Amino acid sequence: MVYVSQKNELIFPISEKYEEYLIDESKFMGNAESISFPKNEDEIISILKIMKEKNIPITIQGGKTGIVGSAVPLEGHIMNLSYMNNVKEYEILEDGTGTITVESGINLIDLKKEILRIFKEKALFWPPEPTETSATVGGIIATDAKGINAFVYENIQKYIKELRVVRASGIIEVVSKEDFNKVIGKEGITGVISQITLKLIKKPSEIWGISFFFENEEDASNFIDAVRNDVPKSETAFIGAFEYIDKTSLNLIEGRKPTMAKIKELPDIDENFECMCYIEIHGEDEGIEEIAGNLMETAAMYNSDPDTAWAVSGETEIEKTRAFRHAAPETANLFIEEKRREDKRITKLGTDMSIPNISFLDMIKKYRDGLSKYGLNGCIFGHGLENHLHVNILPNSYDEYLKGIELIREWAKYYLENNGQIVCEHGIGKLKKKIFEGMLSEEFINNYKILKKEFDVDMIWNRGNIL
Amino acid sequence: MKIAVFMKQVPAYSEGNMDEKTGVIIRAGLPSIANVYDVVALETALRIKEITNAEITVFTMGPDKAEDVIREAYSMGADKGYLICDKAFAGSDVLATSYTLSQAVSSVDNFDIILCGKQTTDGDTAQVSGAVAEWLGIPHMNWVCEIINVTENEINVKCQLDGRLSVIQTAYPCILSVEKSIFTPRMPSLKLKMSSRKKEISKITLDDLNDKNENNYGLKGSATKVRKIFPPERTAKRDIVIKNGKDGADYILEIFKNTFNSKEENI
Fold it and tell me: What is the mean pLDDT of residues B75-103?
């Protein structure tokens, strides 16, 4: 049933111009009858009240950058929070750090601009930084997205001071710290995050972004394992990110580079290189050099020519190399979008698994063997030191898509049997729920059921996600 | 062969801030980068070095922090760097900047080629290279988009002039301002970046120049005064045309045809 408010024009029927809100970066396309763009908590509550009366489920949307379909509606109403993107207040603390209170629809690009404008000379930042800069703060919290610096800055909870959530009852709740875990990573099933006070910390005085290139994957894997076994440190600097990008990803990026504004001015990667490692070092210059020297020696041991290694510093240049790293998922998603146009059943098929107890080399061999066994093409990139790679299956047909699901299930089974995690930072949403059907433990599902019962017994929010 | 490259440190992005009294851009608090056009000039020098084994010296004019530009140039392969820094040079316009650069470059060596970017992203005048050529009395080639040939004695280049391409050959010394499209700059090398921190950067002050009259430099030596810096008003209105399928394609084709016809008429 379509319900459209005549009175205040908060709710609009879905028409052709709203089609883009039926899909996100997962390339999974859904259905909805109506959409709204609330501008504040009062409007959220008004819309919620109308939908509840008619028992119409609401799917919450942020930047639509998710890749498991959490923000894609299966039915009912879409509540898009992109108009809730204001800074409400901020505070500069005595220790030189600060807090900023924002509405949940603000994206990372605008958040960074606001932080720079407000705290200019203080040089502060919010550490959870997924490379997808159009992601919203609310979406990042709802999916517990981590980004490339999670290795050092750790859990998102450390950088949240206060969370406000509109519950299904229509009550605005200031969530206590003890209950943050009932919101973070829960993909909006316990309510809509409306406002967040973020803890900002001092930026490192310098960041270097170093790219090592390798002519074969085994050398790169051995390099990563060597660094994992003995992570170089200095008194004034530390490794802030360690990313791996394989040949297929590099080819996809190079193919699209001329049309990608942020990276089109980077030089071409030599065709002889099979893969690269992008490493960020944060801290003081001297400490950074100490670590960089150590990494250079280790990389040389595994046949990466130090003369070919790139090294940039300064925010603008680091942004470029991060954009290059982000082009890996972005170009994989573009590939999927092309295939989806040929066959609407095809969606993104990517892994988000980590396994601590095996070597990087064994892990990547497992992925290569799997792709070869199923006759599939795939690109591999992700977080090297955490053994957390995103393998993106690149199916050429629906048949290959189905094989890809089977392969991901096979990998997931292996990970679960070997103390690995099969969902780390992308969430479960609607796609992984289907892919991992029967594989998620009863205890895991029950925990979500308990939360749903506690906060949203009528299943108004984000129906179809996880449960 | 000796090549000089002029590189300028500019704000990474402009907020249009200006000192009301002096008309000079306020740079404090803004992240800085090497002017992207000048990085291309350095890349051009490095390509010439690969052919001729030339020595590359980078000059930058600015505060102490502008040393970062020279260190970046070192990490790409430059051999020597000079920071032109003196209170007397502050607030220079095109005239004073070009005079200071010509004095500085003359005080160091006799360079065969001077390279600079087509323009900077802060001042945007694109006039400094021509003015330096005038001060030094050497040939000037603007908007160089291709190096056709380079030897120890002469250089042959293609210049993108208004509506036509011009092939020019000249002996040394000469000054070239290059188009951004001429080369994609290489990335800084890790090895060179690590050694760049220890590499010497020489400083040029007013005392090092032949002409020591401070009235010829900085604000005092500038012929122009900036009254106001502000973003341009967006006054142009454009119609939004919505058409489907063939209608849309026909409409776009018509625009192409009109544009093409009007260009032909101009020729």
Answer: 94
